[in-house]
Amino acid sequence: MLAICKDLEKTIEEVDARLSLLNETDLNHKPSLQKWSKKEILGHLIDSANNNLNRFIRGQYLDEPHIVYDQDQWVSIQNYQAMPLENVQQLWKIANLQIVNVLKNMPQKSFEKKCDTGKEQKELHTLSWLANDYLAHLHHHLNQIFSHS
């Protein structure tokens, strides 16, 4: 878990610096009505962080909590597109710093506890697996934000 925390801390620092260099017009551009802008992708990463934080916390003391979310609804309802970049950036940073805090303080025995992330049927994953998956998901979407920027 320490490697995940170190990677996440490094990513937070790098992304925070890189976002400040981006043009808000580019971040607000929507390739089509059905696709998210880069700012909305960052908003989606906030939602992902919040839901995974919930999994990392509740998964330690509940037996297989069921935690899912509708990513399109979350992005739409929170209207990241209309928010100032600075606010979206701060939310993303703080949510990820809190994930680092929770993972660093998670007892070793909790890594193998499970959380249900299935929408249609039960999908159990260990908190360790979810942490690794979260990091991969984060990097995937950050590549979308920073490609061609």
From TrEMBL:
Domain of life: Bacteria
Pfam families in the record: DinB_2
Protein name in UniProt: DinB family protein
Domain (DinB-like) ranges: 8-145
